[in-house]
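Researcher: Structure prediction, please.
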Amino acid sequence: MPVDLLAIAAHRDDVELTCAGALVRAAEAGHRTGILDLSAGETGTRGSAELRAQEAERATAILGVSERRNAGLPDAHLENNERTRCLIVEQIRHFAPRVVILPFPVGRHPDHRIASELGRDACFLAGLSKYKADGAPHRPFKILYALSYREDPIKPTFVVDISPHFERKLAAIRCYGSQFDGATAAGEIFPTGQELYSLVETQNAHYGSLIRARYGEPFFTHETMVVDDVVALGVQSM
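Model: Predicted structure follows.
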């Protein structure tokens, strides 16, 4: 069955760190959600691909995700080429999502940058009826970029209030003990002296404060967002 919301990321645990709250919120609202991890994380300094697969399975159950797949691309060696685009086109056609969440296209990890570019290209190509790949043509309606942990001077297009869902997000992150137990940094998260779990809470609390909520997750979209009712706009100005 098609999913309403699909998160694509380079590694197992990336989705949990950046947009798990939005996935939980969507699932609780009755939407079908999916995750596509591009690699198995076999090149990571900590743990192993096998252990991370077990951790991802536990995290998936906590998040209530309808389906999670792994594209089997090589960790730390992601490329945006004809072969990988075809593989991801087939995955997008399988999930047939309305909305796709991608990593932000700037980052210190090469895999994150490539995953963003590869995901966006594949979303377009998946809609071409004459593009030779398995599955029926499908092009997502909307692409969002997860902004969590960015140090770039970019303002979120919007922030999702995940206050009621933060504990489930954190529980899903804690499933990856091989990666995060005792850690003070990971992926795009730079060390501040806090343990990683505390740092995640600090970041989510910061973005929550921007919308006058306890916890939030930030997103960016290139398109200007439409407002149907300016009188109903949230977030108090003064």
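Model: The chain is about 35% helix and 15% strand.
Researcher: Thanks, that helps.
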